[in-house]
Amino acid sequence: MKELLEVMAKSLVDHPEEVVVTEVHKEDLLVLKLRVAQEDMGKVIGKSGRIAKALRQVLNAAASRGKIKVVVDIGD
């Protein structure tokens, strides 16, 4: 999951070298923390949060086979 989010985020931003994804496991919950350059925050979140929502949907669809819930935390 971490690699999938990293690839998707790097394809969206102008500074892919500053994309950092960390993961925290909590029972049947996986928290992915996405950090990008301040200038790229709008590109990752999107207008009205559409890009962020799409990222979350893709990750939850990929995680559904493993019966795990994925939470994406986007910050700087």
Task: Give an account of the 3D structure.
This protein has 76 residues and is α+β, with helices and mostly antiparallel strands. It has one domain (2-75): K homology (KH) domain (GMP Synthetase, Chain A, domain 3), CATH 3.30.300. The chain contains 3 helices and 3 strands, in the order H-E-E-H-H-E. It has helices spanning 2-12, 41-45, 50-63; strands spanning 20-26, 29-35, 69-75. Strands 1-2-3 form a 3-stranded mixed beta sheet. Strand 1 (20-26) and strand 2 (29-35) form a beta hairpin. The longest helix has 14 residues, at 50-63. The radius of gyration is 12 Å and the shape is globular.
What is the end-to-end distance? 20 Å
Tally of alpha and pi helices:
3
User: What is the tally of beta strands?
Assistant: 3
* Helix and strand element order: HEEHHE
Q: What characteristic shape results from the CA principal axes? A: globular
Per CATH, the superfamily is K homology (KH) domain
CATH class: Alpha Beta
Task: Give the integer mean of the pLDDT values.
Answer: 92
Low-confidence stretches: none
- CATH fold field value: GMP Synthetase, Chain A, domain 3
